[in-house]
Sequence to fold (570 residues):
Amino acid sequence: MIPQYYQFDCPVKILSGHKALVNLPYEANLMGLEKAMVVTDPGVVAAGLLKHLNAAIEGTKFKLGAIYDKTPPDSSNHVANEVAEIYRKNKCDCLLAIGGGSCIDTAKAANIVISEETDDLMKFQGADNLTKPTKPLIVIPTTAGTGSEVTLAAIIRNVDIDRKMPFMSDKLYPRLAILDPIMTMTMPPKVTAATGMDALTHAIEAYYGLQQNPISDALALSAIDLIFKYLPACTEKGSDKEARLGMANAALIAGIAFSNSMVGIVHALAHSCGGVAHVPHGVANAILLPYGMEYNLKKSSERIAALAPYMAIKDLPDNVNGRATAAIQAVRDLNKKLSKLSGLPLTLADAGVAENQLMEIAKASVNDGSCLYNPEDITVKSALAVLKKAYK
Amino acid sequence: MDQWDEKPSAAYKVKEFYCKTTLQALGTAFELVSKWDPELQDEIADWEEDLVFSMGILPNGPYMTAKREGRRVKYLGLGEKNPSVSILFKNMDSALMSFTGQIGTPGLAAQRRFLVKGSVSESIKVARGLELVQKFLFPSIILNKIFKNPPRFSPAQLLTKAKVYAAIGPAIAMNYSK
Fold:
């Protein structure tokens, strides 16, 4: 069905493929950039990934003005302020995020602090609240899941109230995203599986969400196809370059899809699982996804059924309900396969959630912006029911 | 045409007047429903203490502002009066779609017809409160179209709806000068 009205945007230039990283200095030169502030994390440094960056820029005019390598998994407004301070002190002219979602979102948040000349990031939470042009941001993802390299959003924890806050603005889009499989090869199997399921959740929720549109639909289906094809392969064998590149593309494509059509109940619950019980985002999404699809089955059976042909299902049922049920089962089967390969938890209990935290998670979830875009209405009672199903 | 006529047309003035009146009615209805409906009172109890929120239309209004007082809402009047949360329609026609019952909050969000300033979670709570107010303002035929699920009314809520219909006219008149 064509929506009565929709918007679509993705102004990010994308370089994808083997040896994509070596084109960084050329692209930086095109943008008139010479001195980057790198935002990365200890894992990226320990995996030796910065050596690929150094090799790519060697002998060129493009220099690294400063490196911030302490980004924590759940980045905060304080970290953003710290990065902004280093950026200013070293007179850099762009930000270069190398890492997963937290590094990319930290760079986006620091960009707000720098560009708005503020030390109070939280004033800019919500949608369309940035007033000044931002600095150019280049992103080199080292995980394949968040899609943050092509989204207008950043999620940052406000340490003062211990809650994650969303920031959304056209001004937060990166200028350039570089997908080079060499940067994701060292990702451990469990992280590969969890981040890959995050991408699958983006694609599926984007497809049946209220803000879906024909462009995001096409992207979501393409991402689902790639994920079912490549996620088990690169979880099993991390050095599989084709599978790594396939997943990097799947995550990016799903990122463009959900950036334009938003997400739903699975993300609302996963955000709160992260906030309350510190469950990694991808793990929470993986566990909750089949239950979220079931929750929306009544209102979105045709949309969920339409996913089935892209999920490597052998004998496709020929009716809507059968296909929708098969699609949900395919997600469960994928979770089980990934769990065997990587130890990905299959229940919230296994992910470290205490049963007495479920009510707190449910209460926080209904105040998440994602609820607005979910086809079915979400109340504390219904959110709790979904959480209980996913608990054991 | 040599020159763009910057004077607002009669049609624009009518739309503006309708939106202004509806915002007054919404603020007043919020006050009334929060006095009588326990469901809305429970919702308000979860809001930030003394939360001031406004609703309005970009770029130049009109706006209305209201405030949490305990388990109730007090309508502060037209205009933006230092709100900590604002729900802003991007233009007059988007506001009209909402104010004439053509589209509900989920539809407005899906079509990106409004934005929020301030805490997102508090805005979601206020939007949920506004939906509860709409439940007492619009007839079922509209509610079934704009809500994700048709709202249910307890006998007490049906009585409240009748009370709101009876009281809203005089209450708007009382609030007119605010």
Remarks:
- The first helix of chain A runs from residue 24 to 30.
- Residues 189-391 of chain A form a domain with the Dehydroquinate synthase-like, alpha domain fold (CATH 1.20.1090.10).
- Strands of chain A lie at 13-16, 35-39, 63-68, 94-99, 126-127, 137-141, 153-158, 163-168, 176-179.
- DSSP finds 14 helices and nine strands in chain A.
